[in-house]
Structures are given as C-alpha cells and as structure tokens.
Amino acid sequence: MEITFKVINMFDEEKPEVLAEEEQEEPEEETVEVEAETPKEESVEEPVEEVIFDEEPEEEPEAEEVHYENAVNKGDFILVDMTGSSVETGEVFDTSIEETATAEGLFDAERTYGSRLVIVGDGYVLRGLDAKLPGIAFDEDVEIEIDPVDAFGVRNPDEVATIPYRILRSKGINPYVGAELEIDGRSAIVRSAGAGRVQVDYNHPLAGRKIVYKLKVVEHITNDKDKMRALLGRRFLGIETKEFAIKKAKKKLRIGIPDQIFFGENIQIAKRGVALDILRYFEDIEEIEYYETIKRS
Predict the structure, then answer these.
(1) Spatial separation of the C-alpha atoms in residues 88 and 151, rounded to whole Å
(2) Is residue 147 domain-shared with residue 242, that is, in the same domain?
(3) Which of 24, 95, 131, 197 is most buried as measured by Cβ atoms within 10 A of its Cβ?
(4) First-to-last CA distance in the chain?
C-alpha cells in the first residue's frame, strides 16, 4: 500500500474552509485491545552444582632411612676387598686382590691393587651392587648377586653390526674372533669373521648376564682426616697417603704434596679431583690449598 504524506502550509490563506472542517471533526475514540496477560510461570532456579576442586595431595614425608648397627649404611666411607664374576660361566672380570688377578690371568702391571674405597650410595661401584651394600656386616665375607638390568644391562640386538673386512683392514685392524676393537671411538668384540665380512658386537661383554661379587668390608672409616686421606689415595694411585700433610685452619684446608710426585703425570688433574671430592663431602671447608716443600739435601 502506498502512503502519501501531504504537507499543509499553515500560512496559505486560500484554503481556510478545509482547516475549519478538520477542526470540527470529532476525534474517533481509539480502541486499544489489551490482551489478557498470561500469568508467567514462576521461574524456579535450578540448584547450582557446587564444583569442588581437588585439593593438592599432601606430600608424603620421605621414609626415614634404616640405620644398621655394626653394619654398612648409606654415606659410609668403607674399604672393600672385592672380586666380581659371571654366575653363568664363573669367569672373573674384576678384582681388587692382586693374587686373584694373577691366578685368573687378569694381572695388569700398570694397575694398583688393594682395598677399594667405596662411598656407599654415590656410584663408586655398579648400581646394583651399591644398592645392596647397606646392611652388610663389617669384616664378613659375603656374596651379592646382581641381575643383568642392574649390572651391565640387557643385550641389545641392534648393537650388533656387520662390517666389510676391507674397511677394517684399511684402518689397520686385523679382525679375528674374540678380538676387542675400538671402532670410531666405540668398543666392540669380533663375534665372527669370514667371506669378506666381520660381525662386531658393541654390547658390553657381560650384557645380559647375572653377576656375583664376593666381597669383604675390611675397614669403616669414620675420622674426617682419614676420609680425606682415602680420597687422596683414590686419585694418587700407588702413593702412601700418609706422605701427604693435611692441615685444617677454620674453613681452609692445606695439603702438602710429597716430593715423589712433583713430576708425576696428570698431577694437576688429580689435585683438582681431590679438591672437588673434599669440597663435596666436607661442607665446613671452603678453600683448598696445595703446597710443596723442598728441603736441603
């Protein structure tokens, strides 16, 4: 429907009658229909489900370490005589005893034999052996069996590779079954050789085998100065630790170097190693100083 708006000029004198007529017309009553108001349903608020956030679980207190009387405890400094062998074959692979090394054909003239320092729980020996030391009585012969996973690991077939014979020969390597080689910085054992190919195994020779250690705790070191001497002996192999002078003044430790090792190989590396060991285990020491004394002959 088209709606037309008409604009009336109130100042137009030519059309007064029209205006008059419009004024006389009674206005029609405007009827307003009111719809009956539908009563609104009262809104019922649904109960709000309370969200309960999980409380952070309280940290469980660390279990107190068991303390053993007259036996080894974690953190102890001990000297141990020990020999390790394969349960399966009985083959000895490690010993601290010179006579055993000689009898088993393992003697090495460049190695120092004697009771070995072990600080229990700090990885001075195989993980599986370290974990079983607490509780062992002092000065008693014991045997400790260790499963492969806690010894030298399980065998991994992916660590076995085949290499052309000519490649090894080009590197000056003469491969034969049982030979222990170093290939590109990795240790390997030749398992087979023939037809121009060599099979090498990068797994540890004792991987997958259960091992056993026969050992005896021959000394439990409790005196701080003796502990320091034991740490010195671990780095300066073959030197009597009593030859080192040890003087402590407040937080400073002075160590006198014996003249027989003035020109020893890797002496600086050994000195740094001892210093780091002592700072690790003796919190009251902040500084370590080495000194040398040359006397008139």
Answers:
(1) 14
(2) no
(3) 95
(4) 134
Instruction: Report if residue 189 sits inside a domain.
Output: yes
99 close to 105: Cβ distance less than 8 angstroms: no
Are 77 and 117 a contacting pair, CB within 8 Å?
yes
pTM, two decimals, is 0.73
Question: Does 60 fall in a domain?
Answer: no
Between CA 229 and CA 221 the distance in angstroms is 10
**Beta bridge pairs of residue 221:** 77
The residue among 273, 154, 258, 277 whose CA lies nearest residue 206 is: 154
What's the pLDDT at 285? Answer: 97
Instruction: Give the DSSP letter string of 114-172.
Output: SPEEEETTTTSS-HHHHHH-TTPBTT-EEEEEE-GGGTT----GGGEEEEEHHHHHHTT
Average pLDDT per block of 10 residues along the chain, 297 residues long? 42 42 45 46 54 61 81 98 97 97 95 96 96 97 97 95 92 89 90 93 95 98 97 92 94 94 87 97 97 87
Tally Cβ neighbours within 10 Å of residue 61. 6
Q: Domain of 164?
A: 157-201
Element (H, E) at 102: helix 98-103
Structural domains in the chain (count): 3
pLDDT at residue number 148: 96
DSSP character string of 270-295:
HHHHHHHHHHHH-TT--EEEEEE---
The tokens of 201 are what? 């195994």
The first and second tokens of residue 248, run together, are 């402590």
Q: What is the pLDDT of residue 2?
A: 44
Residues 213/129, Cβ–Cβ less than 8 Å: yes
Cα distances (Å, whole numbers) of residue 102 to 92, 113, 279: 11, 11, 37
